[in-house]
């Protein structure tokens, strides 16, 4: 077991100070205090040093908000009994079914953890009604219950049909605050009423993806319908909102097909004061319905209107009146433009703004709004993914205005951005923890290094200083047919490679390279095709980086990969798909230094062979997912061997390369 350099340094300093004060080996309480200064992943590594460190890492302060996730297997029974001696309050149990083993797992949970469990999720399960009914009455402290996708419970329509079962469950769920019923195909009025009747103090309710019958009588101005045994109706949903209006604060109706009139009916429930509302993918909503929603629910703090394709900038103007709004998502609202974004930027409480795939947004109005005198938004998360009108000047202004408070920035597929944007990010956003620049194809080594490319700067100066009558031109009619020399396109000029002298200048400078983002935890540079080892070996040196994507960097070699692994040892996720120059040799150097790796993508890496699977089996004991699709020199036999060697491996994507009759690149044409 090897600790990361940063972890070793921190531990060394803290232990030295502790020993000076106590003059003897620190007690478990002192060790726990020292471990509290470490990141979770570093603390996990430190717990493997010796037994006293392990016991100190099990302190209650570290497990208060920890969720224990595990599948229902034969070893789960012993694991659950072991959790009885720890402060376990949150569980996520997967792969439960109707077997005796699954029933026994739930029985053990009820006996050993039931009275103190606060959160329970059952993802990817098909548990039986009797097993769940035997567990719920014991969960007297439960505050959050996740039954999303658990169709096996609701398919028959008889869940909680007996009064004695409802009384028992009501005893266990009386203090429940969060209920997730998302993606249930068979949720009916009857089962919904029975279950929610046992949860009188709900604060959060999720019904995303459920089949709900939204019926509204425009003449009577109310919901109609008598309650169906096959589908949840608007009438019953309104009844729940009216009964629990005093406590309910969050509602998720994403992907339910809610209509404008139904939304108005929900928004006007007497006494209902929603703080969070999810409407993602509700394609029937209109600008007028959003205006009425904002008029009746002025206390909204979190609003998700993404993928509501009928909405325009009129909805943005309406949302601009929600003075308490903290998080807003308008992603994939293709009709939204810059109009109204200045008013959003003036909301003093706004911290998260997502405008991904808003194709007509350039960011100019956002800059204008942030330039106003305070109070204004103090954004911590900003997503402008696929906003193709975004330019370097806008990014430069946004970086200056947002400053050190910004924590997450997504500029994926903003194809017009160049090295100037990278310089601005590195100079003005030192607090960034997440940066995504995938598919920004004009970013080069010069941008990451914080240097100005001589050829481009000289060409730009020469072009700007040339007299107008001397500049090349084209005729209106004939275009470029040899009569005139076409103008030089700066973006198409052959770029100048970084030399050793340039790297020497980089090492002597301060500031504008990507190295300035010292707290970076996630970085995506996928498909930045102009990046090479010259910048990768010098800049990708982030001791706290956990997620890194370098897919489709065709110029990166084994040398670059080895450098990344040497300087980013905390990586848990690494994407290298379509890196044709990465071989077994590079992976051998990298995997040796990445013991925490849990997710690895190597799809279409043509130079790797079966040997890499032996390396993965040897060094990546914690690997959970692996993608080796279309790697022509990897065989199915070795994939089976790998799966037998890694105990935590959950998913392997493997597809052999096969010649397709439509793919002329792999067919022999006679």
From TrEMBL:
Pfam family, one: LRR_6
Source domain of life: Eukaryota
Chain ranges of the F-box/LRR-repeat protein 15-like leucin rich repeat domain: 516-667
Residues covered by the F-box domain: 30-68
GO cellular component: SCF ubiquitin ligase complex
Gene3D superfamilies: Ribonuclease Inhibitor (3.80.10.10)
Keywords: Leucine-rich repeat, Ubl conjugation pathway
GO biological process, one term: SCF-dependent proteasomal ubiquitin-dependent protein catabolic process
Record PANTHER family: F-BOX PROTEIN YLR352W, PARTNER OF PAIRED, ISOFORM B-RELATED
Protein name: F-box domain-containing protein
Provenance organism: Electrophorus voltai
Native organism taxonomy: Eukaryota, Metazoa, Chordata, Craniata, Vertebrata
């Amino acid at each position: 077991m090897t600790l990361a350099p940063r972890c070793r340094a921190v531990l060394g300093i803290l232990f030295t100070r502790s020993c000076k004060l106590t003059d003897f080996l620190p007690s478990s309480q002192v060790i726990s205090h020292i471990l509290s200064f470490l990141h979770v992943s570093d603390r996990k590594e430190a717990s493997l040093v010796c037994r006293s460190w392990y016991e100190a890492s099990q302190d209650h302060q570290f497990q208060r908000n920890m969720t224990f996730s595990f599948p229902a297997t034969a070893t789960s029974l012993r694991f659950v009994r072991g959790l009885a001696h720890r402060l376990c309050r949150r569980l996520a149990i997967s792969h439960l079914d109707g077997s005796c083993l699954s029933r026994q797992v739930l029985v053990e949970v009820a006996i050993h953890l039931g009275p103190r469990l606060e959160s329970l999720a059952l993802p990817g399960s098909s548990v039986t009604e009797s097993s769940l009914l035997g567990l719920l009455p014991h969960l007297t402290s439960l505050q959050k219950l996740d039954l999303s996708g658990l169709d096996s419970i609701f398919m028959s329509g008889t869940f909680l049909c007996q009064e004695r079962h409802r009384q028992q469950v009501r005893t266990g769920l009386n203090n429940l605050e969060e209920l997730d019923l998302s993606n249930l195909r068979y949720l009916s009025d009857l089962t919904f009423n029975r279950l929610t009747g046992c949860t009188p103090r709900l604060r959060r309710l999720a019904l995303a993806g459920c089949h709900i019958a939204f019926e509204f009588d425009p003449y009577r101005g109310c919901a109609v319908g008598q309650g169906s045994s096959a589908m949840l109706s608007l009438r019953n949903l309104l009844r729940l909102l009216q009964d629990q209006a005093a406590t309910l604060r969050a509602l998720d109706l994403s992907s339910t097909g809610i209509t404008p009139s139904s939304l108005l009916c929900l928004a006007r429930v007497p006494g209902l004061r929603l703080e969070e509302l999810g409407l993602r993918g509700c394609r029937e909503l209109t600008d007028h319905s959003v205006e009425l929603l904002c008029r009746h629910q002025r206390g909204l703090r979190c609003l998700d209107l993404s993928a509501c394709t009928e909405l325009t900038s009129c909805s943005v103007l309406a949302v601009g009146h929600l003075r308490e709004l903290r998080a807003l998502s308008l992603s994939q609202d293709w009709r939204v433009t810059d109009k109204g974004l200045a008013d959003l930027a003036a909301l003093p409480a706004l911290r998260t703004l997502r405008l991904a795939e808003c194709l007509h947004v350039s960011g100019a109005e956002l800059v204008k709004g942030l330039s106003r005198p305070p109070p204004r938004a103090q954004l911590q998360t900003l997503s402008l993914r696929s906003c193709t009108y975004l330019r370097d000047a806008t990014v430069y202004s946004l970086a200056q205005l947002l400053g050190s408070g910004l924590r997450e920035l997504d500029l994926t597929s903003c194809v017009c951005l160049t090295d100037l944007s990278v310089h601005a990010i590195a100079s003005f956003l030192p607090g960034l923890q997440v940066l995504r620049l995938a598919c920004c194809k004009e970013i080069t080594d010069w941008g990451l290094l914080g240097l100005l490319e001589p050829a481009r700067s000289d060409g730009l100066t020469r072009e700007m200083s040339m007299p107008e009558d001397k500049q090349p031109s084209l005729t209106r009619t004939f275009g470029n047919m040899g009569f005139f020399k076409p103008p030089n396109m700066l973006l198409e000029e052959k770029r100048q490679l970084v030399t050793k002298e340039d790297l020497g200048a980089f090492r002597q400078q301060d500031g504008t390279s990507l190295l300035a983002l010292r707290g970076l935890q996630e970085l995506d540079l996928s498909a930045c095709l102009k990046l090479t080892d010259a910048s990768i070996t010098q800049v990708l040196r982030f001791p706290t980086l956990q997620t890194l994507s370098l897919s489709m960097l065709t110029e990166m070699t084994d040398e670059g990969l080895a450098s990344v692994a040497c300087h980013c040892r905390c990586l848990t996720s690494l994407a290298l798909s379509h890196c044709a120059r990465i071989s077994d040799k590079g992976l051998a150097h990298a995997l040796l230094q990445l013991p925490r790796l849990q997710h690895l993508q190597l799809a279409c890496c043509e130079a790797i062979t079966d040997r890499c699977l032996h390396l993965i089996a040897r060094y990546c004991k914690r690997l959970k997912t692996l993608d080796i699709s279309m790697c022509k020199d990897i065989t199915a036999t070795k994939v089976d061997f790998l799966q037998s060697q890694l105990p935590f491996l959950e998913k392997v994507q493997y597809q052999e390369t096969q010649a397709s009759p439509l793919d002329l690149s792999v067919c022999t044409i006679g």
